[in-house]
Amino acid sequence: MWNTGLEQRREYRRRGAYLSYEEQCAQLAEAKKDPYCDWLADAPAQVIQQTLKDLDQACRQHGTWKSASRASGMSCRASGTGTSVP
Predict the structure, then answer these.
(1) Are 21 and 58 in contact (CB under 8 A)?
(2) Which of 7, 4, 1, 2 is nearest to 64 (CA)?
């Protein structure tokens, strides 16, 4: 979750936008409804939200850092396949 959230923030930053913790949580709620992201329902919501809160604090203190990869929006990784699902 940390890496997905960080990549999402990096993508927003590349576009000149800012993504808050609250926005990421709202997008997480939407992603949980996606059948490709059914694995998100297996993790306790509080754990995922705390991870996003910790990420938000780290980004506020240290920035979002540079990344060579390009991610757009919250994407899910299908469990066990290693492939990213938009």
Answers:
(1) no
(2) 7
pTM for the whole thing?
0.68
Angle of helix 45-62 relative to helix 2-14, nearest 10 degrees? 40
Question: 16: left (phi > 0), else alpha (psi -120 to 50), else beta?
Answer: left
Contact indicator for 64, 56 with CB cutoff of 8 Å = no
d(CA 31, CA 1): 12
66 in Cβ contact with 9 (< 8 Å): no
pLDDT digits (tens, 9 = 90+) for 2-47: 999 999 999 999 999 989 999 999 999 898 888 888 888 888 989 9
3-state secondary structure (DSSP) of residue 19: coil
| CA pair distance 7, 22, nearest whole angstrom | 16
Q: Which residue has the tokens 């506020």?
A: 60
